Amino acid sequence: MHRGDAPNEWRRTIVQIVVRDNNVEQALRALKKKMQREGMFREMKARQYFEKPSEKKARQRAEAVRRARKLARKRAQREGLV
User: Fold this and answer.
1) Where does this protein have compositionally biased stretches of type Basic and acidic residues (predicted)?
2) Distance of alpha carbon 60 from alpha carbon 37, whole angstroms
């Protein structure tokens, strides 16, 4: 299942890490990097406790504002305004 299939469904992705030459440390670093990029650590932390719908809405609104500001900042930098 992917994002957008159903509102409360888990997104299932298969993460595959290849262990080369029995180098487990390198494989763990690669796994952590992939999990960080996917946002899994943030999601696990968020799912530890119940989040009230009003808190969830406020958090999502704040995240949208942050994204919009970041996009505007990048756009201004690209156009040479900053």
Assistant:
1) 48-66
2) 19
